[in-house]
C-alpha cells in the first residue's frame, strides 16, 4: 500500500478485519506486506506491524512477494511514477486517485494492458458507489446517451447548507472545513477540478473517449450567493454543482458548473455530502446510483471491492464468492417491530374508541393517533384510522384477532405496517 | 438461447447490433448459434437466421459449438432441467429467471461450481439495475445490514396510479394490463411472489444465506383500497410494496408486504414502473440503485452485461474493454443550449428592462420571466432576476458582455445555467 492517510487506514483496517473474521472459506486471503509512508514515527489510527511500514518506495515496488499495489496517496506526482513502476513490474494496481487517472489515465491503462495486469480505480469516482464497474461491465451493451452527476461532496454540502439555512458561502465553507468535509485548501473542490477529474474518468468508460482537462468546461461555486438560492426558489429551482457528459449533434459536450435544478426532479433532493450519478443508456434507460461519495469508509469499500476482484482472479476463480452454507438464522415475522396503520369500520357511537384502545392496551400496544374519517350514516358506521406506536407483530396479530370479534367493530378492513427510516444526509 | 419472447428478442437484437456495429476492436465476438422456441412458425419481431431456430432442446444443450446458454424462458420447469443439463455439459449459463434462481438456486450454484462454469443472473432482479454485481463484487468487503427494495414494477405502477389519481385497485390493474405492465394472470406480481423470489436472490448474495420461499413473510396488495391512500396521505404517508431483508437480534428477518412510507423519504418518490434497491453496508453506508426494473430492453441490458463478462473471460481477458482511441469529438461549451438565470444589479428606473431585453433580443434570446427582487434605495439600484428561454451559450456569452457595459446595469452579478430534465416515470 502506498499511503496511510484516512483512506489508507480504513483499507488497512478492512484487510485486517477480513483476515480475522472471514465469513466464507472460499474468499481469497489478503496479506498486507508493505506500507509506504512519509514518516514512520507518526501516530496512526490503525495498527500495522512494525516491519511492514517503510519510507522507501523501492522496498514495496520492487518486492517480489507483493503482487497487488494499492495507491491511496492522491495527486499526480509521484503517484504516476509509482503506479507506472508497479505496472511495469507486473503488479496489479488498485487506486483511489482521480487526478492521476484523469490526467495520465490513457497512458496508465495502456501500460496495464501491455503488461497484462489489472488497473482498477472504482474508488476514484463516487466513493463507494459502484459506477465504474457499472459502466465498464454491466452497461457494456448500451450506447450511453448521457451522464449527469453530483459528484463532489464538499460543494454539495456547502450548497445544501446555503439552500436550507440561507447561510453565506463563506460560513458554509468554514462549517464544511470544521466538519472535515472540506480541506484546508479547498480549491480543487470549490473550483470544480475534483468534479472535472471524475467526469473525465467516467467519460473514458462510458463513451470510450479521451477527455483531457482542457476540453471540459469548468466553473466552480464561488460566485453563488445566498440570495441566488432565494431567487431560484421563487422560480421553482435549487442550485447544484453538476458534472455532465452528453451526446449532442456531432459529438460529446462535457461541462462542470453550478446549475439551476427544478425542485421537483430527484436530483434536487440529493443533499449534503451525498453523490449521485445518473446514466442514460439506450437499453437500460435512466439508471440512478446514489450514495456517500467520499469519506474513508465508503472509499475503502470500493478499494476493497477492486482488491478482492483481483485476488479472486489470482486464485483462479473469477466467479463471485459462492454460497456455502445456510448462513444466518431466519427470524419469523412475529419478531418484526413497527408502527401499524389500522383501518376499522366501527359502530358510530360513544365508547367505541375506549373499547378498541383497551384491546390494544392489553396487548401492550399504545395508540399514537386516531382519525375519524368517512361516515356511513345509513349503516351507522364510520372509518376509524388508528396509528399505533411501535409494537411487535405477534402482539399486533393477537390484538387484531380480538378487534375483529369486538361487537363495536363491524370490520377490521386493513392492517398495514409502517416502514421506519432513519435520517440520511 | 432458450426462449425468444420479448426479452429473448431484445437480447437477440442486441447481439446482432453488436456484431455489425462493434465500437471497439477488443470486444469479444458473440455468435447466436441456436434458439429454442416452442413454435418455429410464429412471427417474431426479430430476424433470426432460419437454421438457428429449433424446437429440440438437445440440439442446443448438446451442441459442442455452443459455450454459453442464455435462458430467457422463465418459470421453474423445464428451465431447471435445461440449466442443469447445460452446466453439467460444461456450458456457462446466463439467465433472467428469478423463480428458478429463488427455488433451485442453491443447487444450480453448486452445480456451476462443480463444473467450473459460470452461472450469472443479473437480469433476474431489478431489470437493468446492476444490483447482483454490486452485492457480489463491489460490496464484498462490507457487512450488509439491510436491503430494502421496491422490486416489482407492476405493483408499483398500480399503487402509483391509486395514490395519484384515487383510482380503484381494479381499474389500476386493468390499466396496467392494457399497457403491458401486468400479465393476464397477475397473481405472481399482485400477491408478492415475484418480489419474494427477488429478495430471496438478493439475500443469498448479500447475507450468504439461503432464503427458502416459506421462510419469507409475504403479503400482496389486493387489500389496499383507494381510501387507504387518502387516509395515509392525511397522516403524511404513501403506500408501497416493499421487499425487505434486515439484520435483527439473532438473525435475519425477510418480508414482502405493502407498507406506509413517509412522504418525505426518497422511497416515497419512486413511482410508476421504476424499481429501487437500497443497500446499507457497514463501510459503504446507504447505497441507492434505481432504474427500470422490468421490460425487454432493460432486462436485455443486464443479460448482455453477463454475456459479455463471460465472453471476455473465454477470450482470456477478464479486464474491462480497454480504451483504444480518441473516441467521440468533444464539442466546445459554445454549443451548449439551455435556459439561463441572470441576476443583475440594475439602476432602479423606468426603461431599464427595455434596454436589457433589447440586448438579449439582438442576440436572439427571449425572456421567459422577470422578477424584481431586493432593492437598495440608497444606491438607487434593484436586483433583477431574469429567466431566459432556451438559448445557445455562444449567444448568451456575447449578450452578457454587452449587458455588463450597459449604463443601466451596475453589475451582472450572476449567470447560471438551468438544467433540462425530461419527464421520467
Descriptive tags:
homodimer; 425 residues; alpha/beta; six-stranded mixed β-sheet; 13 helices
Question: Could you walk me through the main structural features you see in this protein, from its secondary elements to its overall organization?
Answer:
Chain A is of the alpha/beta class. In chain A, 35% of the residues lie in helices and 25% in strands. In chain A, helix 1 packs across helix 11, helix 4 runs parallel beside helix 9 and helix 12 runs antiparallel to helix 13. Chain A starts with 5 loop residues before the first helix and ends in a 7-residue tail after the last strand. The mean pLDDT of chain A is 93. At the A-B interface, helix 1, helix 4, helix 5, helix 9 and helix 10 of A face helix 1, helix 4, helix 5, helix 9 and helix 10 of B. Strand 11 of chain A pairs antiparallel with strand 11 of chain B, so a sheet runs across the interface.
SSE class of chain A: alpha/beta
Proportion in β-strands of chain A: 15-25%
Largest interface: A-B, 128 and 129 residues
Number of strands of chain A: 17
Cα-to-Cα separation, first versus last residue of chain A: 31 Å
Short overview:
The structure is a homodimer. Chain A has helices spanning about 5-20, 55-60, 80-90, 100-115, 130-140, 155-165, 170-180, 185-190, 195-205, 225-235, 295-315, 350-360, 395-405; strands at about 35, 55, 70, 90-95, 120, 145-150, 215-220, 235-250, 250-260, 275-280, 285-290, 330, 335-345, 365-375, 380-390, 390, 410-420.
Amino acid at each position: 500500500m502506498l499511503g496511510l492517510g484516512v483512506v489508507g487506514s480504513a483499507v488497512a483496517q478492512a484487510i485486517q478485519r477480513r483476515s480475522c473474521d472471514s465469513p466464507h472459506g472460499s474468499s481469497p486471503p489478503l496479506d498486507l506486506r508493505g506500507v509506504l509512508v512519509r514518516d514512520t514515527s507518526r501516530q496512526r489510527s490503525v495498527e500495522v506491524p512494525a516491519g511492514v511500514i517503510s519510507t522507501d518506495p523501492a522496498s514495496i515496488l520492487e518486492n517480489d512477494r507483493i503482487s497487488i499495489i494499492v495507491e491511496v496517496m492522491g495527486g499526480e506526482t509521484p503517484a504516476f511514477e509509482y503506479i507506472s513502476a508497479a505496472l511495469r513490474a507486473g503488479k496489479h494496481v488498485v487506486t483511489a486517485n482521480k487526478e492521476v487517472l484523469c490526467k495520465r489515465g490513457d497512458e496508465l491503462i495502456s501500460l496495464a494492458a501491455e503488461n497484462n495486469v489489472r488497473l482498477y480505480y472504482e474508488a476514484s469516482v463516487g466513493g463507494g458507489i459502484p459506477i465504474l464497474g457499472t459502466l465498464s461491465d454491466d452497461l457494456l451493451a448500451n450506447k450511453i446517451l448521457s451522464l449527469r452527476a453530483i459528484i463532489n461532496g464538499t460543494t454539495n454540502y456547502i450548497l445544501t447548507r446555503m439552500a436550507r439555512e440561507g447561510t453565506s458561502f463563506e460560513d458554509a465553507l468554514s462549517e464544511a472545513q470544521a466538519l472535515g468535509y472540506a480541506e484546508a485548501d479547498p480549491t480543487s473542490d470549490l473550483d470544480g477540478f475534483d468534479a472535472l477529474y471524475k467526469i473525465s474518468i467516467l467519460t473514458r468508460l462510458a463513451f470510450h473517449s479521451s477527455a483531457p482537462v482542457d476540453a471540459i468546461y469548468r466553473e466552480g461555486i464561488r460566485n453563488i450567493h445566498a440570495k441566488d438560492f432565494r431567487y431560484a426558489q421563487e422560480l421553482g429551482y435549487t442550485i447544484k454543482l453538476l458534472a455532465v457528459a452528453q451526446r449532442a449533434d456531432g459529438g460529446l459536450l462535457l461541462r462542470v458548473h453550478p446549475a439551476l435544478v427544478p425542485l421537483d426532479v430527484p436530483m434536487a433532493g440529493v443533499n449534503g455530502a451525498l453523490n449521485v450519478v445518473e446514466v442514460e443508456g439506450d437499453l437500460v434507460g435512466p439508471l440512478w446510483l446514489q450514495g456517500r461519495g467520499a469519506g474513508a469508509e465508503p472509499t475503502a469499500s470500493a478499494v476493497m471491492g477492486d482488491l478482492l476482484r483481483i485476488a479472486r482472479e489470482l486464485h483462479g476463480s473469477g466467479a463471485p464468492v459462492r454460497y456455502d452454507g445456510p448462513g444466518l438464522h431466519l427470524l419469523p415475522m412475529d419478531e418484526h417491530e413497527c408502527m401499524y396503520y389500522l383501518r376499522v369500520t366501527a359502530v358510530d357511537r360513544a365508547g367505541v374508541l375506549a373499547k378498541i384502545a383497551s384491546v390494544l392496551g392489553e396487548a401492550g400496544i399504545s395508540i399514537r393517533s386516531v382519525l375519524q374519517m368517512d361516515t356511513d350514516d345509513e349503516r351507522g358506521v364510520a372509518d376509524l384510522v388508528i396509528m399505533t406506536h411501535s409494537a411487535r407483530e405477534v402482539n399486533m396479530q393477537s390484538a387484531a384477532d380480538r378487534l375483529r370479534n369486538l361487537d363495536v367493530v363491524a370490520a377490521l378492513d386493513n392492517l398495514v405496517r409502517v416502514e421506519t427510516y432513519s435520517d440520511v444526509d
